[in-house]
Amino acid sequence: MAERGRLVAGARAYGLIAGMWIRSTMAYRASFAMTTFGSFAATFFDFVAIMLMFSRVRALGGWTLPEVAFLYGLSAISFGLADLVIGSMDRLGRRLRDGTLDALLVRPAPILAQVAADRFALRRLGRVTQGSLVLGWALTRLDVDWSVGRLLLMPVALLAGCGIFCAVFVAGAAFQFVAQDAAEVQNAFTYGGTTLLQYPPTVFGRELVRGVTFVLPLAFVNWLPASYILGRPYPLDLPGWVAWTTPLVAAGCCALAGLAWRAGLRSYRSTGS
């Protein structure tokens, strides 16, 4: 019951803080529209780079442009949702250095919820919108035998992928309690991870594919679900049903990230520690 109470309190605090930042943002609607479009345009150029590659080749690692666009869309939406919900975690290192985390510690609200909702940026919807458009385009170009299982796996993969990226954000923030200036290390696994997943696993070495499957399970965001939906064999010869373990992997990642966060918070001794 105590754990449930903390979750409810955290969700309430997150909603109040995020709502405050949304109201602040919408007070300047022209600025919001421009920054959202800027986010959309900046991420769109990532897919433009992929399209330029396919202007010279017909397939990349055996994957066609619509198939790569399908990978891109799954990754972009999952990461975009996580970045929207909890992307402010990468600001923790700055709070540790300037001591402003201490102000959050005295408030009657969970620290994780306060840090995650801090400076909630609704403009990040631009990335989600752009990924959704690419995914929609890919679906119109792919010839997929849509069974009930494949249809159900789509939303499951998107939500579980978001959970995996959220776990990476939290784990990276927990590491900053030790390093105190590790925002770029965290970005290597968050922003770098989604860039990696935009390309098919067949273009990478088997050791890297093993690493993002069994060590840092980013492959469960889109590589494994996409392989199942598109009827493609996975490079590590895993059975197709492994794609359905994505929610379990996401739950495990979130649990481990939560433990890391608690350990990091317990080690904090105010600024300079």
Automatic annotation (TrEMBL):
Q: Does the keyword Secreted apply?
A: no
Stretches that traverse the bilayer: 30-54, 69-87, 151-175, 241-261
What keywords would UniProt list here?
Membrane, Transmembrane, Transmembrane helix
A Pfam family for this UniProt protein? ABC2_membrane_6
Q: Which InterPro entries match?
A: ABC-2_transporter-like (IPR010390)
State whether keyword Transmembrane helix applies.
yes
Q: What is this protein called?
A: ABC-2 type transport system permease protein
At the highest ranks, the source species' classification is: Bacteria, Bacillati, Actinomycetota, Actinomycetes, Kitasatosporales
